[in-house]
Amino acid sequence: MNNIFWIINTVLIIIILAFALNWLWQKIQEKRVGGRLTQKEFEEGKRKAQIIDVREKGPFKKKHILGARNIPMTMFKYQYSEIRPDLPVYLYSDAKGLTLRAANILKKNGYTQVYWLEDPFDQWKGQTKASKY
Length: 133
Hints:
Helix 5 links the parallel strand 5 (89-92) and strand 6 (114-117). This protein is 47% helix and 15% strand. It is an alpha/beta fold.
């Protein structure tokens, strides 16, 4: 009986440690990449920026930020060069981890003005567009 409790406690500690390390990794990535924007800051600067939605095509077609272009994260490594490096880039998705990965790819490839929406897209209160298909 003591062995079962010891195993359960060990597994729980490992799970908690994994979550803590994941959280810490995201914080380190945020600091390294920089550029987190609130909804208000995103809305104020989006007219002068390239807005990139890194979600897959299905969710993008269903609903996206007005003026956004879709480059799914699964294709981002191959299509990021379609983004102009001389203009600010505003990224967003449903998960911060995806957005930070996209921001890292851009930063590693010489993009200097990379920003991302700090909230997930489902919390977006600004203008959106839905596909008719």
